[in-house]
Amino acid sequence: MAQHNAFYAQSGGVTAVINASACGVIETCRQNSDRIGKVYAGHNGIIGALTEDLIDVSQESDDTIAALRHTPGGAFGSCRYKLKDIESHRTQYERLIEVFKAHDIRYFFYNGGGDSADTCLKVSQLSEKMGYPLTAIHVPKTVDNDLPITDNSPGFGSVAKYIATSTLEASMDIASMCATSTKVFVLEVMGRHAGWIAGAGGLAGQGEGEPPHLVIFPEIPFDRRQVMERVEYAVKNYGYCVIVVSEGARYEDGTFLADSGNTDAFGHRQLGGVAPTLAGMVKQDLGYKYHWAVADYLQRAARHLGAKTDVEQAYAVGVKAVELALEGHNAQMPAIKRVSDNPYRWEIEAAPLAEVANREKFMPREYIREDGFGISDAGRAYLAPLIQGEDFPPFENGLPKMARLKLARVEKRLPAFSL
Amino acid sequence: MAQHNAFYAQSGGVTAVINASACGVIETCRQNSDRIGKVYAGHNGIIGALTEDLIDVSQESDDTIAALRHTPGGAFGSCRYKLKDIESHRTQYERLIEVFKAHDIRYFFYNGGGDSADTCLKVSQLSEKMGYPLTAIHVPKTVDNDLPITDNSPGFGSVAKYIATSTLEASMDIASMCATSTKVFVLEVMGRHAGWIAGAGGLAGQGEGEPPHLVIFPEIPFDRRQVMERVEYAVKNYGYCVIVVSEGARYEDGTFLADSGNTDAFGHRQLGGVAPTLAGMVKQDLGYKYHWAVADYLQRAARHLGAKTDVEQAYAVGVKAVELALEGHNAQMPAIKRVSDNPYRWEIEAAPLAEVANREKFMPREYIREDGFGISDAGRAYLAPLIQGEDFPPFENGLPKMARLKLARVEKRLPAFSL
């Protein structure tokens, strides 16, 4: 069969395992060199395609590509750049097709979340209209776990493992200090819209009095009085209180805790952080000594603690994306299907992009405990398998070894294009 | 020879490996059961001795004790409680001796930092005056690495490895996002007085342009204009800027950055956090989009990423403490002596407590780069060996497995004592 090139790009916030998906895509392309010629990666995601800033992946050795499996971040650069409405900004989409045409690219693998699924679908539709034979496959990724259809999103399991582990470890710390020192520890985690990551913190403990004593979800309106009662109860009964709070925690009226209208001495909005805000409330209302942590990028970059399941799934959706393309499927996304909870078994199936694009999956209410401050048994049954297994990266001189890419650029063939 | 009991207690902020020292002490006591009877642990440190709240460690299985080696936090409870001046508060010291006498305790192992070394010395001196035969040995511990005599302090190496790894991983993240999103990432680390932990962040990179681009030490007065110039330079030349900042960063006049006099809308002092303060300055002066993280307890509890060297040294000082006691040494501390940098070799030697107590070891100026914003070659040579090697704990259901102790209490023999 005829040989054509492939394009791969990373989109949106990166994860600890998005490069494992890249690894799956590239290795599978290399295994099918009779049909797929070169893989070109977009430098900084789709911007690389628009500006014809392409990385020639064929310049990277097999060892380097294999090392992507244990390298966090986005190896080819990602971007926060949403293509505009296709009706009024058709030029951008047409430019993509032009670039693909100029470089004989007939396979389009787009690794991202909900927005990029939408872009992938539109590119697929437009190429069909324009009569250019392009196979567009979306590769799922997001730490937020909010993609529909797929049982979970690659990237989430590793964050979940990191947050559950960190919650457990920090709880051991405060438990040993609480007699004379810190009584309350607050850990702020990602997930502005959905409480999946906060819920993962709940995996750290289970029995009566085991931390975390409170998980604060964006899905449950924040009630200061009720929260403080719980904190006081935990300190009085267990000696200390561990709280995992979502950055998206909000009041009944939708106002974020982290944006409570406070301003500093210069009149600037108080610098974010739900954790310090909540810790301040604890001090103010209850007088307890506190500590707080904000994991931020640390949580989604922590490949050193990647979940084995997550790494395997991230790799598998990369592999499946290429297989789907070679089988002639178009506008699809490899989705993870849960076959059973215990033992946990999963498989990959194809989902039509039209069903994926522009839909967010929130944490179902039944995964949250009735009182709203922890995960339910159903939530635990869903979350627990996703943090299973370890997949430590190789270390060198005490630090995780990272893939070091050449990132050789492909010669441009088209006039410049401004974004 | 006659058999007497031993007392072990943990003091001050706990570390990822203080329990490895406990493991070394207890296992070595068990191996010398002809001379050492039971090990009694102080519940919540020295408070346990004062209040006769003793844990009978003989009730714990060998497996449980072995598991201490990979369990963070302080297994028997620690405390922030400094014994007062011996001249005016002699009662407390005498009470310790009474409790020891009541339970036939003739070996006193105190696991802590500078303050507890001082307590240990005083207890030793007083017991001698009172004619009670007590052998007092201090077991070094502190994430701050500020103990004198010992080349490094057990607990520091694991924090250093965690911070270096987290800096490296988060740098991979921001590097891939910086084209269209976050330009500056700020990681706040512990170390209010000494920049050892901040310096460890410097191990993440070395070459021109490699992150972290700035390390901000408490030892170097903070100059906002100069720092912002550096941040701007990094963003313009490398696309992004990673900053590791010590919680103890301060201005020339000694004011901490985190306590810059700002108040919130309610008139309260702005809730701490050097990282959000510094990130706010970046936004204000340069307009760059930022992210910030505060690792807090996560860094010193992160046993999942313990440095092999650190775990081994923590265990070794525990073993040596018991050996010193059995050899009849008193008022000593096992100290780590560096034999060579590369290959890194170390041994344990005894140091007199009189030389250890109440002295802090700061980061030498020659370990900091001349410009003040990074570690020098000498600093790197000192720090690099301490993060070497991995010693992953066993995992169960996706989480690190922790020792679970019975913490059986010893029957009290004395009247109650109020602190």
Automatic annotation (TrEMBL), chains A, B:
> Which cell locations does it reside in?
Cytoplasm
Q: Where are the transmembrane segments?
A: none
Q: How is its activity regulated?
A: Non-allosteric.
- Which co-factors does it depend on? Mg(2+)
Residues of the active site: D144
**GO terms, biological process:** fructose 6-phosphate metabolic process
In this chain the Phosphofructokinase domain maps to 9-324
Any Pfam family hit: PFK
E.C. numbers: 2.7.1.90
Reactions catalysed, semicolon-separated, are:
beta-D-fructose 6-phosphate + diphosphate = beta-D-fructose 1,6-bisphosphate + phosphate + H(+)
Q: Which GO terms describe its cellular component?
A: cytoplasm
| Protein's name in the database | Pyrophosphate--fructose 6-phosphate 1-phosphotransferase
Species in which this protein is naturally found: Halomonas sp. H10-59
Gene (name only): pfp
